[in-house]
Amino acid sequence: MPDHIKKQLLAEISQLEHELAHELPAEIKKAVAMGDLSENAEYHMAKQRQDFVNARLGQLKRRMAELSLVNLSNIPKDKAGFGSTVVVYDATKEEEIEYRLVTSEESDVSKGLISTTSPIGRGLVGKRVGDVATVVTPNGKRELEVLKLTTIHDEAGDGDQDSKADGAKQ
To answer: Is 140 left (phi over 0), alpha (psi -120 to 50) or beta?
Structure first.
């Protein structure tokens, strides 16, 4: 898991745990002191926030566990996967586009950072140079031909250099 993602998740977990352990109990105690709980908006809002914080903490801790299980040795060295940079020719837009396959926490379409769980990311995972991915997006079907592939292993310097092939599409 990328360090900045781990830090981001841990920071949110820490903030939510603090809120759950310190801030919300104080709000609930203050609301209970106001009397009748059946019509006490402050009490109901604090309890709803407590439920939300508990649910979000559960989500974040599950995501941390999932990301910690990512094993780089299971990522292919000759096909697109997590961490790969893929240059494609988009026949629909008639242009070359560069994407980097990242976690959902890092995705930013405007910067070419595409989640491996997005439609385009799922379509590109497992593709080699020369392969064509047909991707259904909210804007319609797109044909993406892989022109160049740099895997996470290539960038780390331990990949097979043959996977850095350039396509001849002009």
So the answer is: left
